[in-house]
Amino acid sequence: MKHYIKGGNNTKKGTKKQLPKSITIIINKVLPVIMLLVAGFYFLPYASMNFQNNDVDHIKKNNEAVMFYSSTCSHCQKVYPKIFWHNVLNFKNVDKQIQTINVQNPNNKHYISEFAVQETPTFMKPNNPDMKLVSTNVKQINNFSETGASDQ
After folding, report:
1. For residues 67 and 54, is the Cβ–Cβ distance under 8 A?
2. 9-13, 52-56, 121-125: segment of lowest average pLDDT
3. What is the three-class DSSP state of 134?
4. What is the rounded CA–CA span in Å between residue 79 and residue 102?
5. How far is residue 84's CA from residue 72's CA, in Å, rounded to a whole number?
6. Do 67 and 83 touch, CB atoms closer than 8 A?
7. Are strands 98-102 and 128-134 parallel, antiparallel or unpaired?
8. In this predicted model, what pLDDT tens digit does every residue of 25-60 receive, in sequence order?
9. How far apart are CA 129 and CA 127, in angstroms?
10. Composition of the chain by helix, strand, coil, percent to 5
11. Is the whole model's pTM more than 0.90, yes or no?
C-alpha cells in the first residue's frame, strides 16, 4: 500500500521572481534600439570613411569647403566623424556642407598634384584653391569653412 505525503510531489511553480512587465519591455525592446543607435553614432562615420566609393568627378563650388583626407591617416580619423555629422546635420543646405575627398582612392589621386595637397587632412575653399588649412582643431575648421580665415 502506497502512502502519499501531502505536498511531496508539488513543485512550486511561479516562484521565480519576474521583473515587472514595463521593465521587461524596456530591456527587450527599447534597450536594443538605443544600443544600435549609439553603435551607429560611433561606427557610421568610420564605415563611411573607409568603405564608401568616393570617386569625385569635380569640386563642388557650392560647398562651404573641401576636405582632402586619407582613411589611414590618424589625424583624419580624428576629424572625419565631426565633418560627417556636420554634413548630416546640413543635409539640405549644400552651401553649408564640406565635400570630402579620399586621396587614397586611385581616381582621386590627381587632386594631390592639382591642388598641391601635401598632408592630410587639408581643408580648401572650393572657390579659392589657394585658401587652405591643415588642422584637426574643430574651432579652426569651423572658422575656416565659415569665413576663410585660418587662425582661431
Report:
1. no
2. 9-13
3. strand
4. 13
5. 16
6. yes
7. unpaired
8. 777 788 888 888 877 777 777 777 777 667 777 888
9. 6
10. 45, 15, 40
11. no
Its sign, for the CA torsion 86, 91, 97, 100, is positive
The CA-CA-CA angle for residues 3, 7, 8, to 5°, reads 60
Residues 106/45/47/67 CA torsion (nearest 10 deg): 0
As a residue count, the chain comes to 152
In 3D, which of 93, 117, 90, 100 has the Cα closest to residue 45? 100
Cis peptide before 121 (omega within 30 of 0): yes
- Cell numbers given for 1: 500500500
HEC readout, 68-81: EECCCCHHHHHHHH
User: What is the C-alpha separation between 11 and 83, in angstroms, rounded?
Assistant: 62
For 145, counting Cβ atoms within 10 Å of its Cβ (0-12 exposed, 13-18 middle, 19+ buried), the class is buried
Integer Cα distance of 129 and 3 in angstroms: 98
Q: Amino acid letter at 11?
A: T
Q: What are 70's three cell numbers?
A: 586619407
Q: What is the largest CA-CA distance in the chain?
A: 105
Q: Which residue has the higher pLDDT, 39 or 132?
A: 132
